[in-house]
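Reminder: ligand-aware prediction takes two inputs, not one.
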Amino acid sequence: MAITDIKIVRDYIRMCSDGWEQGWHERNGGNLTYRMRPEEVEACRPFFTGPGAWTEMGVTGASLAGEYFLTTGSGKYFRNVALNPEHNIGIVEINGRGDAWRIVWGLADGAKPTSEFPSHYMNHCVRAAATNGAYRVIYHAHPANLIAMTYVLPLTARDFTRALWQSATECPVVFPGGVGVVPWMVPGGADIAMATSELMKEFDAAVWAHHGLFCSGPDFDTTFGLMHTIEKAAQIWVLAQSAGQGRLRQTIEDDNLRAIAKEFGVTLNEKFLG
Ligand SMILES: [Zn+2]
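Here is what comes back for the chain with zinc ion:
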């Protein structure tokens, strides 16, 4: 028995491999965190090593103080996670004030959690509060077609949501609330963490201009599926714009979007219609 035999760790590693296979994680691009359930922490605890030192995050989120997170490592490659989990991912504990982490398993030989951990942590706080604790996954990747869209469309939630909803019929069902957009910012710091978490109060996904996408969800399937659906829609948008040289003969109209929502029992964010 190893920690990698525990289902939640195995599923986490599988999601890293799936993202790599999609081509969303060149070099050390992207990061994934998961807020563990108490029973998952207990299942992993026999494998915990002596805790490391507390490291301040630069942000504070008291609501998730004391919780444990699976996280990818700073500078680590998704491509390598499945081959060598102990050196590429880890489990961190958050302190009682909600402003520092320490490593309790993995990230061996001096590795650290992803440089986006403060962003992830603040987004976990916001999404957990918005969903009564249901949301546990924050996932950041570099899907190429969506990034390409950020060079062409105005950087507004309305422009991106409408373009994506119109690009595939499943989109309004998968993200009826739409997507938020963060203007270009320096990654890795408290500023982009705060800007993203502000959007995450409303949206399950936030586009980072010229950089990538942040997605949140209750589990790995839903969160990976959201990233996958948005990037697939972005690919269709890019293909249609390219093939039509910027002119579309027809699209999914607002009344079509409303009809989809009615049929599938979801509530579209009305401010993006009409
Ligand atoms: Zn990134």
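The mean pLDDT is 97. The longest strand covers residues 100-106. We will return to this case in the review session.
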